[in-house]
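User: Some background: our group keeps a shared notebook of sequences we're curious about, and every so often someone picks one and asks for a predicted structure to add to the entry. Today it's my turn. The entry only has the sequence so far, pasted here. Could you supply the structure so I can complete it?
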Amino acid sequence: MEGVDVPSYFICPISLEIMKDPVTVATGITYDRESIEQWLSSSSDCPVTKLELPKGADLTPNHTLRRLIQAWCTINASNGVDRIPTPKSPLNKIHVLKLIQELSIPRLQLKSLMKLAGLASESDKNRNCMVESGLTKPIVAFILKSCAKINGDGFEEALGVLHQILKVSTDEFKVLVMENQEFIDLLTRVLRAKDNNNEIMRTHAVSILKATIEVSSVGVLQKLNLDFFKTIVKIVKESISHQATKSALHILFESCQLSQNKLKIIEADAVLELIELELTTPEKRITELIFGILDGLCSCADGRAKFLEHAGGIALISKRMIRVSSVVDDFAIKILASICKFSATNEVLQEMLNVGGISKLCMVLQADNAIEVKNKARLVLRLHSSFWNSSPCIHLYLLTRQIAK
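Assistant: Of course. Here's the predicted structure to add to the notebook entry:
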C-alpha cells in the first residue's frame, strides 16, 4: 500500500487508520466504530471537539462514507489495498428479546441458543446488550430445567451463553443463585459426570460455579460437602484447561474462608494436589491463589500435617519467596509462621534451614517489602532463633540487631 494517497476523511481521528465501520457521533465527527466505542468506555467527550456527548447516545452508521471507502479500496486493490467488508449491524434489544422469546418454543430453542452463543462470543457490547435485555434469568431457568439431561440439546450452548454474559455483569445472576443450592448441585454434577469428556462444557461449568460461589450466601457455602470439594480438587488435578484450573482454585480460595470448610478441603486431598500443581511453576496469579489456599489450610493442625507429609512443601515455599510477588511473600511467611508456632519439630526447623527458608526470610527483611510483611518475617525468625543461630544469615542479623528490634 506504499505510495498510495489515502483521502484524509477516510482516516479515523483516533486510530489514524482507514475506517472499517465509520459512525458519526452527536458532534458530527465520524470515527471508526471500534475506536470510538473503546474511547467512550472510559471517556464521555468527543475526542476531536472535546464537547460532552449525550450519555447513551447512538452511533449513527455513515453508510455513504463506508461505500466510498469500499469503492476506493476496490480501485486500489492492485496497489495492495484490501477491500473492507460490509460490517454487521450491531446487536439491539429487539433482536435479543426475539431470541429470548424463542427459548420458550421447544422446536426453536436449539437454534436460538446457538445464535445467542455466537453473538455472545463476539464482543462485550453484545454481552452487555444481552444482560440489559434480561437474558440472564431465562438462561439460568433453561439450565435448571435441563438438569435431568445435561447432554441434551441446547444445554452446552446455554452454559456457553451464561459463561459469556457473566464476563460483563453478575448483578442479576447474584439475585438468582445466591441462595440456590440446586444450581450448585447441577453444575457439580456436570463436572462429576463420568461420560462427560467435553472439556469446553466442563470449563464453562466450573467458571459459572466460581461465579456462583463468589455470590453465594454464607448459609449455602456452609452446606458444601466433601464430595463437592473432591470434585473441585479433581479439576485442579486434571488441569483440563488453564481457565478451569484457575476457576477451581478461586472456588477453593473462597470456600476456605469458612473454618468448617477447611477440614473438608483438606480431606479432599487438596494440600497434596496444590503443592504438585505449584511444582509445575504456573503463572503468578495461580501461584498467589495456591499460596492463599495453603495459608488458610495450614491454620488447621490437619492441614499442617498434610503439608509436612509432602517432601517438597517447605522447599517449595522457600523457593517462591522473593521470586513471584509481594502477595506470595505474605502468604509464604504466614504458612511458615503457622508451622513454626504449632508444628515445629527439630526436623522441621532443620529442614527450613537446609532448604534456604531462613535465608529467604532474612532476604525479605532486606527487600522492598511492606513493613507488615517484614514484621511477620522478623517474628518467624525470632521464634526459633536459638536453633537457627548457626546460620550465617541469622548470626549477621543478630549482630546488627535487625531481629531484636
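Suggested note for the entry: The first strand starts at residue 22 and ends at 24. Residues 196 and 335 are 37 Å apart (CA to CA).
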